[in-house]
Amino acid sequence: MPEADCPTECHYVSRDRQVKVHESYLEELAAENQRLRDQLSQSPRFLTPREHQVHDEGVEVLFALPGDCNLRPSLDVPEPDADTHVRNPMLGERAWFLPYDPSLPPIHVCEAACTAFATRLRKVLTKSETTSHMPRTQYTTEATLMKIRDPAIEWPSLPQARLLIQIVFSQVTRVYHLVLRKSTIDQLEDAYRKGNFDDPVMTCKFFALFALGEVYSARSTPSLDCNVPGAAYYVSAITMIPILPERPSLAHIETLLLLSLYSFFLNRRHSAFLLVGSAMRLGLTVGLNHNIPESKCPDPVEREHRTRLWWAIYVFDRMYGSKVGWPIQISDADIYVEMPSKVPGDIHDDHTSDTEYLVASIGLAKITGQVIDHVYSRKKFPESFLQREQKLLISLKEWCGALPPQIRLNRDGPVPKNCIMLASRPILLHTLIQATSPNPFEEGSSQPNIRQTLRTLSDACIHAARHTHSLILEEWTNGSLPIFGYFYAHYLFSSALIMVISSLVYPENTNDFALFEAAFEILRGMSSHGNLAATEFYDNLECVKQCLDSMKGADGGHPQSDISRISGSSHDSLAVIAPNQLGLLGNTTVSGIPEATAPANPSNDMAFLGESMEEFLAQPGLDFDLLDPSLTDGVYSWPNLSLWTT
């Protein structure tokens, strides 16, 4: 140390001491350095709330505009690409994983799944960081399947077998072409006449058919190990295909599709996905995605069967993806086979179902695949989110307009309601998020044209949900709803979630809560009879109901006070999720679709009725800018910051 009164400046020798540290410490530093580099290399457009919060004058900035990097000049963040800001604002930067069993990998929760949507709704209602996703536990386990496995299981009597096959023809092949009907009946009769039950391929196919026949017709099962009818036939069929054939026949593909469909009745969605994936790959190996020359397959029925079998795979792939959120397994650009057509002569009706119905189903499946790809994926697109929503709804409108009259007016025909709900429910949920925000936006920040646009999309979602609910309710009251049906339970669950949001956000729709309660009771009834999917969905709705009860309790037992507060701010809050450059929709009045105005027998294109929807669909695509989550920073200032990422 220099002396206090020393006038001379002191100079010291530079020291570079060697310090011993553990190698693990250096590795941790290197890993931390790489992690920070990776974070900086990510687009700042959709920042992860936990890791990328910054504060500017006390305001939390969770989502930065592409041109707003100057909010924090000290942050050396690279400029994002032009197309990184147009993803679905409901998606987080990272995939959603849920730890469940320490011995197994974490569960991947797909963004399009209705159960994921239910979890997000509960988080909005509770505004709690501790609100967690409910893992799917209500499914038939492998251990249970092995318990009911019976290597000596026998074929049913011929009259019973005929009945089971006819049930499948009535309930399944009327909608999906999975087998040739007359050929299947002929094979069944021939097997019983000759007593030939030793062919494993044929046995596997018919056991899959018997399983579906039982589950569509039975109300209960005597088995104590598995309450789902037909499970014994399913297990026996599954055990016959442990090794897929190197040279598959069409019967192999038929069987895989039948088994994949039955897997949903066991609520084994992953098994269904694997089976239809195997069917698709076997189909590719035999060229089902191509037209086969007549010289290679002279029989017109067989050629048409190949075509329709491929499109059944296609429809299953898109349909399964829409239920859980899996990406499509094959692009439309890789499909060259023609659409189904009518076989000349009188043999068509003996073998195949209605051609126009199948073509309509394929068209709807194609749009459904686009919804999964364009709304729920993390891909980068040149169009904004609202532009993609607009294009999807235009496609649905064109699909509805092209339906033949006999299908358009048929309540049992293919309807796009689930597709509409899947595409537009992020808008409706975002509406609820902003309506329940503790910092509602000022009147001046709202724009009538934007409010009308978002209200139009929300109304389409609500209208589709009401239509779906009414169809299922009619089936239930008529006693014609399959008690173990997976898809009925799924559609009812999906519509019930929409009804909850509708009743909370819009004052004129408060009666929609009665529809939610009706769905709750139907799922309770299906669950009590052993429907595993209904049990899962009922448990989710019960948690939603508990959240609603907690909201009422927080208001001193006056449920309408919270609803009134939400309704009063919802109209203005719609505007803040889109910027000023949104295409003008004129001076149309913001108005909902009161449930009393819904027709008793709605047609398949009912969701597109209304001037506001027509105006929205008619807007030039270039007039739309992105659906901008950065304008909703106030919404995310409450504690639940990991809503979209955890």
UniProtKB/TrEMBL annotation:
Compartment(s) where it occurs, according to its Swiss-Prot or TrEMBL record: Nucleus
Q: Which UniProt keywords apply?
A: DNA-binding, Nucleus, Transcription, Transcription regulation
Q: Name one GO molecular function term.
A: zinc ion binding
For the biological process aspect of GO, one term held by this record is:
positive regulation of transcription by RNA polymerase II
Q: Which InterPro entries match?
A: Stress_Response_Reg, XnlR_reg_dom
Q: Name one GO cellular component term.
A: nucleus
Xylanolytic transcriptional activator regulatory domain span? 272-346
Instruction: Check the record and name the CDD domains matching this protein.
Output: fungal_TF_MHR (cd12148)
SMART domains from the entry?
Fungal_trans (SM00906)
The UniProt entry lists the main location of this chain as nucleus
What this protein is called in its record is: Xylanolytic transcriptional activator regulatory domain-containing protein
Species this protein is from: Penicillium coprophilum
